[in-house]
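Quick one: sequence plus pyridoxal-5'-phosphate SMILES, need structure tokens.
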Amino acid sequence: MILKENIDSIRKNLPPGVKLVAVSKFKPIEEIMEVYKFGIKDFGENRPQELSKKMNELPEEINWHFIGHLQTNKIKMIIDRVYLIHSVDSQKLLAEINKEAIKRDLRVNCLLQIYIASEETKQGLSEAELIEILDMKSVYPNINFKGLMGMASFTDNQDKVRGEFKYLRGLFNSVKQSYFADDSMFSEISMGMSGDYQIAAGEGSTFVRIGSLIFGEREATIQ
Ligand SMILES: *Cc1c(COP(=O)(O)O)cnc(C)c1O
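Reply:
Sure thing.
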């Protein structure tokens, strides 16, 4: 059973302006509907197939966020309905999303995922790769550059996590000034999960992506 108190306490902890994305990966339709009935309209998924199925079965009104590694051959499965792709982690992926968007006469909302952790496993662009993309951002006319995303190290060391979020906020501020000074669209920083969302919110996150604190723990083997 999903407890409304869990959601209420997360909401209470979020400063105004920080939006909650309920990460529903691996969770069945019925549980998502339960959370939806508590007033949550933003859900996050990390597998294109699963997202595509849920988009078809759940209310139109839901804003679907894609938060996982996206292979270029899977873009088609989600591009028509996705609200925001948080996890653009390569120039190649960005170019393909743009290409598919042009075919469909769409503009696709994207965040550029930045590598901020000190772990080998996390995806993301380096600062140099980010700059390379932004230097030529006009070649992606059908991409709405909405901001940056990052995942902190998985550690109990709060200072380390805070430092990584601070770094992402600083990078956001600097590219905002250099590349998007007149573009109000570039305004989002997606950072913070169940274990670190309060730190992220304190460091200027605008989207927190929370799964287990809402839905309960996922099976460790399928994370
Ligand atoms: C699974 C996942 C989350 C949510 O994780 P929790 O720790 O369950 O809150 C957030 N962001 C991404 C990219 C994820 O894959």
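The chain has one domain: 2-215. The pocket of pyridoxal-5'-phosphate is lined by residues 23, 25, 46, 67-68, 151, 193-195, 209-213 (CB under 6 Å).
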